[in-house]
Specification:
Elements lengths: L5 H5 L2 H17 L12 H14 L5 H6 L4 H5 L6 H17 L4 H18 L8
Bound molecules: protoporphyrin IX containing FE.
Pfam families: Bac_globin (PF01152)
InterPro entries: GlbO/GLB3-like, Globin-like_sf, Globin/Proto, Hemoglobin_trunc
Cofactor: heme
Length: about 130
């Protein structure tokens, strides 16, 4: 028997939607993050739902529509400082709380997101 994926353990599409819908309103209120994002956040939310679905072991929705994620390359146009990565993770922590993601699967999600967020840093603090 295959072990369940993170996607299956959190409850699939419904959980992804809850996380993403809790996350972006927080991003848009965060003074370090808001200036990087477009006013119309809906398309970004749709991409993030597809990405997190596959990142957590669900169907490869992001790659089917957008090709290889190349996340670091796709973030290069935006000056991502260590403090912006921290702010992103802070918004995500609150979103995971809102979506009631708890227990062992939460720890797994958290360590993967921390790793990926630090990988996105492309600008030293003083150059922001
Ligand atoms: C896109 C910021 C970390 C996943 C974006 C965009 C910005 C951004 C400004 C572009 C929005 C637009 O379309 O105009 C940041 C910042 C981060 C961060 C400041 C702090 C570290 C992450 C992490 C992930 C992620 C950790 C995944 C776990 C994505 C995805 C997109 C995206 C999937 C859409 C890419 C596409 O255009 O297809 N992000 N991001 N980001 N981000 Fe991040």
């Amino acid at each position: 028997q295959k072990p369940l994926t993170i996607y299956e353990r959190i409850g699939g599409e419904h959980a992804i939607t809850r996380i993403v819908e809790a996350f972006y309103p927080r991003v848009q209120k965060n003074p370090l993050l808001a200036p990087l994002f477009p006013e119309d956040i809906q398309p970004v939310m749709e991409k993030q739902k597809r990405f997190l679905t596959q990142f957590f072991g669900g169907p490869p929705l992001y790659s089917q529509q957008h090709g290889h994620p190349r996340l670091r390359a796709r973030h290069l146009p935006f000056p991502i400082t260590p403090s912006r990565a921290e702010a992103w993770l802070h918004c995500m922590k609150e979103a995971l709380d809102d979506a009631e993601i708890q227990g062992e699967v939460r720890q797994e999600i958290w360590s993967r997101l921390c790793f990926t967020a630090s990988h996105m840093v492309n600008t030293p603090e003083e150059n922001q």
